[in-house]
Amino acid sequence: MKPSLIKLQKFFKLEAERGYDNRAVLGGLSRMLEPWEAEARQDGLPEDLISAVLSRLRDYNRLSPTSRQEALQGLWHRIQSEVDVPPLPDASPTKERTSPEGPREMGEKADTDATAAENQVAVKVEAEHPEPEIESRKEPQLEEKKPEKKTPATLNAPVTVLPGVGPKHAKTLERLGLETLEDMLYFFPRRYDDYSQLKPINRLEYGEQVTVIGTVQSVTNRKIRNGRGNITEGIVSDGTGDLRVTWFNQPWIAKKLRSGVQVVLSGKIDQYLGRIMMNSPEIEQIEQQNLHTNRIVPVYPLTANITQRWIRRLMHRVITYWAPKLEDPLPKDLRHENKLVDLSNAVLQVHFPDSMRQLHAARYRLAYEEILYLQLGMLEQKRAWQERTARVFDVPDEWLEVQVARLPFSLTNAQQNALADLRADLSSGHPMNRLLQGDVGSGKTVVAALGIALVVKHASQTALMAPTSILAEQHYTSMKNLLTGDKGTLAEHQIRLMIGATPESEKQDIREGLASGEIKLVIGTHALIEEPVKFADLQLTIIDEQHRFGVDQRAALRAKGENPHLIVMTATPIPRSLALTVYGDLDLLVMDEMPPGRQIIDTHILLPRERERAYALIRSQVSEGHQAFIIYPLIENTEFDGGFDAQEASQAAVDEHRRLQNEIFPEYQLGLLHGKLKPDEKEQAMTRFRDGDYQVMVSTSVVEVGVDIPNATVMLIEGANRFGLAQLHQFRGRVGRGDAKAYCLLIPETEDAVENERLSAVVTTNDGFALAEIDLNQRGPGDFLGTRQSGYTKQLLMATLTDLKLIEKVQRSAKNLFEQDPDLSLPEHQELAATLAHFWGQNGQVTQSDIS
Question: What is the pLDDT of residues 510-532, one digit of tens each?
Fold first, then answer.
């Protein structure tokens, strides 16, 4: 059965099991239509069948449960009439399930279903347990004595079924992402106040992350530095000592605090002039009942018009009643083998823990589960592509040796290994699905060019898509140099460039050449995926800077061929933990060796007061005919809100361009590049810089990765502490691409020794992979994730993509499970299969179509 039909069957089956409540996919079945359509076309499903699915499911949310059942059964019968597929299970919509259409208005009579009765029980439970404190529970057991129940359908009920939650409160809770009872179960605390481990002020130590209870002695609010900010200062005492606390640009805190009020402070202990203090701690007035319970109390995210006390009580009612009813999707043997507590206990303990040990066990269990779903989904995607067939491209060794000998340089060992892997993939009979990652200047383009040569040798076509016109033009020039000429694989007229600025008459000529097969390699931007572009025989697609493209754009390019081979390239080194998770469906090619002769960029950290030395170096280099970049972290002063004197400290490219042009470099022409420019304006600015019209380019972080300006020899980065190490390394890679010596200068905003120690890693190493690992641990995965991968992290509520030890452990479990039961069809894996489908459905566009 085709992968697109397998996916459709899974969603239909899950929908039937849930009583047709339109929640098999978060947001409704219509959310999966766009990626499914791309995959269905890739699978070659009949056009009328695809249209039937799209038209019936587009308005699925408006149908009653009975009509939904009829629609899905009718669609599947239609599919059965054209394709050999098994029947769907015949499940009628059950009355136990509440309507998914949203909260009832206040006073509206509930439907005659079992939900009302169950909610009456919940009201009774709530009345018996009015406070959020819970009695000490027994240690969570690894084995349950009673048979597990199915997850209650009433968890899909809106929050308005709870006592005291009407339409107004429901709207407020919606801002926190809380619309159903199930949402509340997985609305985890952001931190905890441990009243069982309180420390007196006179025993606090520098650097500790602590919770402190005390009484406010005084509070003041005053202006600082030119009146552009303010500072709130308070003194809190607990009888053993005094603690100074400060908040910057939060004047409302002074109104909230009064002398004599008891508060709980959470934050890191700092020092000022030898005395301990706290900068910008979280603060909350003490609830007396919590103070005397000696318990660990959860602290939840808040929004306007919601207090911690109110949300905590509401959460307690839901958690204590509904958590025990959850069925555990993980098989018992898997839980036992990995010493995981069951799901009910994990949810209970993560919200209202009895001890730190039990809290850690609960968090570990939930993190393990999330990574497992990610791993299993990736394994399924990888298998789906490995089961497809693709054209075989094989070439004689002698022919390849001639092509390599034509190059003006020798291949590195890393390039030779990458070429061998590409060659094996292209001759395997299955579609290649490779992520080619290499540091700046490692020679990825040469490897891609040889891959293209292997395919066009057989008279097939290839396409290379870049995110910007200037990068596409750069690739066009490189490919002509590498693939044409004496003993070359292509003639110049067989390589064409198609970008937004290409005249329409030339675009039409290119479209005709692609349709006829005369053009063998087309290089371009998103213009390549426009509908009129048709290929005679597209067999290899290459996507540069893959994180810049969304799922649908990659799928659209690949859909223009019949299971074409795919190479996606990135200059951002991917840390191992990410390679095992969000990139787990791709086969990685790592190029971690630089070509001989590639110069080391001379990198230095300058203090803010040494800025004139940087300007002097730029003048010296420009006078020798070279060019320079100056990078700023923000576009406008208003972009940053909060923090000590942030508006003064953060220099904006727009303002600084004007100052630099008028006061510092009046004799030079300075270009300006920032995120608010239109795409064609960015292109024009970079083109003029490349052509030498500008001597200095002032830019924010939008300066393009991969842009080749051989004449640029200075990279000056202001506010360097605001960037990740991997990003700084990418900036550094924009210079030193010619023969002249190049420099990278880092100027942090302050002289803070700790921050500058972090930046020193960029000075001491040119290894992008090492910097990427440091960056991942310090800043998290955000800098490494593109449009496709960022969706995954939204579902990781407990797990982090920096925990390599956990990821490797879960990967082993996932592989074992996948080898035993790849379809998760065994009875003990049914709940796991349903939960897995739901997890990937919540990532909506992140399904098998993502690698199409």
Answer: 999 999 999 999 999 888 887 68
Let me know: does 727 contact 761? Beta carbons within 8 Å.
no
Q: What are the tokens at 687?
A: 């083109």
Distance CA(176)–CA(250), nearest Å, equals: 22
**219-228, 283-292, 560-569, 580-589 — most confident range:** 560-569
Virtual CA dihedral for 703, 705, 708, 709, nearest 10 degrees? 30
Q: Which of 406, 421, 410, 489 is nearest to 454 (CA)?
A: 489
Nearest-5° Cα angle at 686, 682 to 690: 170
Which residues partner with 270 through β-bridges? 277
Position with higher pLDDT, 553 vs 250:
250
Tokens of 201: 């002020």
Tell me how far apart the 2 most distant CA atoms of the chain are, in Å: 87
Q: What is the sign, positive or negative, of the torsion defined by CA atoms of 687, 692, 697, 703?
A: positive
Round to whole Å and give the CA distance between 48 and 387: 26
What is the DSSP secondary-structure string of 230-264?
Answer: EEEEEEEE-SS-EEEEEEES-THHHHH--TT-EEE
Query: What is the dihedral sign for C-alpha 783, 785, 790, 793?
Result: negative
Contact 213, 297 (CB under 8 A): no
Q: Which residue(s) pair with 242 in the sheet?
A: 237
The structure's pTM equals 0.62
Hey, what amino acid is at 529?
A: I
CB-CB contact of 830 with 150 (8 Å): no
Query: Which of these, 698, 701, 755, lies nearest to 728 by C-alpha position?
Result: 701
The rounded distance, in Å, linking the Cα atoms of 194 and 212 is 10
pLDDT in tens, 788-833: 444 455 567 777 776 778 888 888 888 888 888 888 888 888 888 8
Give the whole-angstrom CA distance, residue 565 versus residue 585. Answer: 14
d(CA 388, CA 428): 11
Residue 126 has what DSSP assignment?
A: H
Average pLDDT over residues 47-65: 77
Tens of pLDDT, residue by residue over 263-283, are 888 888 888 877 888 888 878
Query: What's the distance, Cα to Cα, between the start and end of the chain in Å?
Result: 17
DSSP string, 465-491: E-SSHHHHHHHHHHHHHHHSSTT-SS-
| Mean per-residue pLDDT, 109-114 | 33
Of the ranges 446-460, 599-613, 762-776, the best mean pLDDT one: 446-460
Report the C-alpha gap between 235 and 237 in whole angstroms.
7
The beta strands (E) that lie in 392-537 are given as 433-438, 461-465, 495-498, 521-524
Distance of CA 35 to the CA centre of its chain: 18
Q: How far apart are CA 527 and CA 679, in angstroms?
A: 14
Does residue 58 have a pLDDT over 80? no
pLDDT tens digits for 436-495?
888 777 888 899 999 999 999 999 999 999 888 888 888 998 899 899 988 888 999 999
Spatial distance between the Cα atoms of 45 and 43, rounded to a whole number of angstroms: 6
Q: Is 275 exposed, middle or buried (0-12, 13-18, 19+ CB in 10 A)?
A: exposed
Q: Are strands 565-570 and 433-438 parallel, antiparallel or unpaired?
A: parallel
